[in-house]
Amino acid sequence: MKTAQTFSAIAKQISDVTQTSFEIENTKSISGGDINAAFLLEGKNQRYFVKLNQANLLEMFAAEFIGLTELAKTQTVKIASPITFGQTDKNSFLVLEFIEFKRATPKSETRFGQQLAQLHLQKQPYFGWKIDNTIGSTPQPNARSENWVTFWREQRFGFQLQLAAQKGYGGKLQILGEKLCERLDDFFIDYKPQPSLLHGDLWGGNFATDNENNPVIFDPACYYGDRETDLAMTELFGGFGQNFYAAYNEVLQLDSGYKTRKTLYNLYHILNHVNLFGGGYASQAEKMMQKLLAK
Ligand code: ADP
Questions:
Q1: CA-CA distance, 289 to 187, in Å (whole number)?
Q2: Which residue is closest in CA terms to ligand 1's atom 15?
Q3: Does residue 210 share a domain with residue 64?
Q4: Which of 207, 218, 272 for a ligand 1 pocket mutation test, highest count of atoms within 8 Å of Cβ?
Q5: What is the pLDDT of residues 190-214, one digit of tens each?
Q6: Among residues 97, 121, 145, which one ends one of the domains?
Q7: Are residues 280 and 181 part of one domain?
Q8: Which of 97, 114, 144 marks a domain boundary?
Q9: What is the mean pLDDT of the chain?
Q10: pTM for the full predicted model
Q11: Which CATH number covers residue 133?
Q12: CA 52/CA 50 separation, integer angstroms
């Protein structure tokens, strides 16, 4: 099936779910994603943002749709309204409200800090999530747990470590990783995290503002977990200004142990980068583990 046919199947599904006829007049490719092809589909008075990938990745889009829906329900940070997802012979797809993105300003970063803290403040029932999803294109298991440290050990750090072993990253990375697994409880002696709904992949490339300067987050890998993990990821590749951190802290203060745990939490993403991209990320992960084990 050609892309044109995929687009017309998507347009038909949009018309069905919105109960408003949608005929595509123009399509535009959108760059900036890591995993999927992205497009703007324009009709006479409607615009939609569409992500496309292979047909067998339907579940990835279903999980993103559910994550965005749950984030939207909190009415804290703006997200693009999820419209529909589905599959053609050749592709799976996700359709969202199209939002014109602008770069964040200091003012919108302040608002985002306040709003993210409000999102994290809402109590959630357990660690994990209702379904498994993906982080980048890597599977992310989310089996329900009452114990955060066990959850982190088995379903986050341990899962990526095992994946790395399967991909041939043995030796030092595995030895340090196993030691760290044994020591995990030490990082939580005076700190008992509560489950918060997390964005889950909150690097600077997944945050922008709309034309009215409202902060917008997208491309989530949602689950219920320690809010410090979202904060840690904002620091991993930079891109969030001081206004953001000050505003967050004013609503919800960070624990003094965050400075240490942020390395532990970002290790998950660096191990994911080892598994996705290889290269220098393995030695970065080893350095992070050595730093943590020296504590
Ligand atoms: P991927 O899943 O491939 O990483 P993203 O969700 O990051 O894709 O989206 C790719 C790019 O499309 C983003 O960098 C952003 O610039 C743009 N984008 C994302 N969501 C929307 C939206 N709802 N409306 C308009 N543009 C969007």
A1: 13
A2: 32
A3: no
A4: 218
A5: 999 999 999 999 999 999 999 999 9
A6: 97
A7: yes
A8: 97
A9: 96
A10: 0.96
A11: 3.90.1200.10
A12: 7
CA of 43 to the centre of ligand 1 (A): 19
**pLDDT tens-digit map of 113-150:** 999 999 999 999 999 999 999 999 999 999 999 999 99
Task: Please give the Cα distance from 228 to 262 (Å, whole number).
Answer: 7
The residue type found at 4 is A
What's the domain range around 110?
Answer: 106-293
pLDDT, one tens digit per residue, over 222-267 is 999 999 999 999 999 998 999 999 999 999 999 999 999 999 999 9
pLDDT > 60? residue 1: no
Task: Kindly provide the b/e burial profile for residues 9-28, where b requires at least 16 CB atoms within 10 angstroms of the residue's own CB.
Answer: bbbebbeeeeeeebebeeee
Residues contacting ligand 1 via CB (< 6 Å): 30, 32-36, 38, 49, 51, 80, 96-99, 101, 205, 218-219
Cα 13 to ligand 1 centroid, rounded to whole Å: 20
Which stretches does DSSP call E strand in 37-100? 37-42, 47-54, 82-87, 91-97
Residue with tokens 């999820």: 82
Token readout for 53 is 């990938």
Residues 151 and 269 in one domain: yes
Residues identified as active-site: 201
